[in-house]
Amino acid sequence: MATAIQTFLPVLDVRTPVRPDFEDLLFQNGFGPLLREETTTLQVNVGKRCNQACHHCHVDAGPRRTEIMSQAVAERVLNILRHSLSIQAVDITGGAPELNPNFRLLVTESRRLRKHVIDRCNLTVLFEPEMEELAEFLAENEVEIIASLPCYMAANVDQQRGRGVFEKSIDALRELNRLGYGLPDSPLLLNLVYNPLGACLPPPQERLEADYKRELHRQFGINFHHLYTLTNMPIQRFAAFLEQKGQFEEDMGLLVNHFNPGTVSALMCRSLVSVGWDGQLYDCDFNQMLDIGLGAGPQTVWDITSLSHLSGRRISTASHCFGCTAGAGSSCGGALR
Q1: Which partner for 154 in 30, 147, 166, 191 could form a disulfide, CB atoms 3.0-4.6 Å apart?
Q2: Within a domain: residue 246?
Q3: How many folded domains does the chain comprise?
Q4: Residue 57 lies in a domain
Q5: Does the pTM of the predicted model rise above 0.85?
Q6: Which residues contact 80 (CB under 8 A, 6 or more apart)?
Q7: CATH number at residue 210
Q8: pLDDT tens, 102-148?
Q9: Which alpha helices (DSSP H) does 151-274 contain, by range?
């Protein structure tokens, strides 16, 4: 019988002062400042408009947000992509990225340039008006789908994402399976994302993936490839939730006391550049939401024609970086260890 997902952590003192210095802890553990390596992923946030308003959303996205990437910025991003031979993957996110009118342009041109394309999909967007052919479009372009599904139980998903979201998500996953997504040996990659309901770290990724695969197939006949576990970042909407509950300091203490030096070499900011809806450049999507610009070098897509020369430059850090280095680590591709 399925049970609510739990996290299992050692009991630690979490009375660490709020907002400790991340770089100080790096130095204490024998690291220098974080430096960029070769950029292999271009992550493009096309705006904050979304058909959902999730409690944990670090983007603070929702149906009423008006920030959206223009065609001029999208075309500039594609020009940079043409001149950045090291880029292997284009990771398109939002909001619900599919709601941006330039989404299909970014997908088709990136695929024409033979880049791997990822769509950060919330699943329910497949049922929005004028999105009837979206799933087929993604399949035709062999776009990898990384879809949010914070639990395999309806009550937990609806609590975090809104009433009825779980049922729509299941319907969307069935449709994607029908098209070949998520099936064994299929080139149409379908990966799911789990994040905790509250102020805690995710359980071990491999074990939770096995639970998801068993329960989603047993209950709904659904298949997918991998599950990624992400730590909720104490920024934006989730930070406001923690403050309201009086748990912000406790959550920061949890992250700091679970700092894992083994995650530092694999941090996504080393090989990723994040582009904001307005063309600003950042070291990661979380820095983007806090308006912490690229650590060194150009600051917008208009200042640069290639990303190949950013190696060796310093990465901007702040206290939220403890979220990526806590426990098994956290990135857009799941656990780091």
Answers
A1: 166
A2: no
A3: 1
A4: yes
A5: yes
A6: 42, 301, 304, 305, 306, 307
A7: 3.20.20.70
A8: 999 999 999 999 999 999 999 999 999 999 999 999 999 999 999 98
A9: 154-161, 165-178, 205-220, 236-245, 248-257
